[in-house]
Amino acid sequence: MKFVGMNISSMEHLESSGVRSLSHRWSHEIRAATQDRKMTMHRTIDTAQVSESPVLTVKNLTVYREARIAVQNVSFSLASGTDVAIVGPNGAGKSTLVQALLGILPRQSGDISILGQPLSHTRKLPPHVRQQIAYLPQNFLVDRRIPITVEEVVGLGWDRLGLQLPWSGKRARRQAVRQALSQVEAWHLRHQLISGLSGGETKRVLLAYCLVRPRKLLILDEAPAGLDVRSEGEFYRLLNQFKQEQGWAILQISHDLDMVRRQCDRVICLNHTIRCQGSPNDTLSEDNLSKTYGFEFVRYRHSCERGNV
Q: What is the pTM of this model?
């Protein structure tokens, strides 16, 4: 045996070397573990920073329509879990602003960022960002010759952008559609044609379309228009519920100032430029409404209120 001739000092040297080697290995492992822990902490901090950052940021946005300025130097931000209304007279640029945010219309200047991703000047967003945006128009027109059911319409909201196999994720898709329709209390409508629904039923189905896949930003262009009082109240009840449950950031165009006072967290008064913005109580004052709509609007509103008393 090679170790037979070893003396005590040789043995001590070997043990000392082994201890140093083991100590070195432990030190290396501890440093590696500490580094991993620091990286994990950094990732956690980064995630927290992302979650706290605005869902939508608009800076100095200017948009032209037919060589005329429709929106000029508009800046605002929208946080998760908030409902912000854009109010203003007809022709003030509200729909133009929304269409520019969605990339439907080009912008003359300014920056738009959604979920931390800039909307390019070619009006493109990464697919994973665009999938987290939902849009409900004022009117949802369906060709009655197309026999598409409620279940099929909501299923379109589940499908990812781009090419995919038709049978991919079929079971998950079916479960997501059922859950979304159940949440808006419309599962019983699943086999009906979308063209045969009432206005209130259609709005419920469109909310289910937004719910079927997780979203971060919901944009409404006078979505409750045409609904009766009961259906409109039910629509906003569901909207507020999902804002709280899903953490939606909601940006909506509205002409109903009373609804805005009741439902919204913030208001943007727009007449080509932002006249004012802030909480409903502060923003919808007589002075601010006069700046946004004109003095005649405020006087007419007062006469209507006196007539209702």
A: 0.76
Residue with tokens 């932002």: 274
In whole angstroms, what is the distance from residue 216 CA to residue 56 CA?
10
Backbone angles phi, psi at 5, to 5 degrees: -80, 0
Residue with tokens 């109580």: 281
Helices within 7-80 (DSSP H only): 8-52
DSSP conformational letter for 68:
E
For residue 87, list its beta bridge partners.
269
What token pair was written down for 84? 């912000």
The whole-angstrom separation of Cα 83 and Cα 22 is: 60
Q: How far apart are CA 202 and CA 198, in angstroms?
A: 6
Distance CA 129, CA 161 (A): 11
Q: Do residues 197 and 144 make contact, with C-beta atoms less than 8 angstroms apart?
A: no
What would the pLDDT profile of 39-83 be if each residue is shown by its tens digit?
444 433 343 344 468 999 999 999 999 889 999 999 999 999 999
* DSSP per residue, 146-182: S--BHHHHHHHHHSPSS---TTTTHHHHHHHHHHHHH
Amino acid at residue number 61: L
Q: What is the pLDDT of residues 85-118, one digit of tens each?
A: 999 999 999 999 999 999 999 999 999 999 999 9
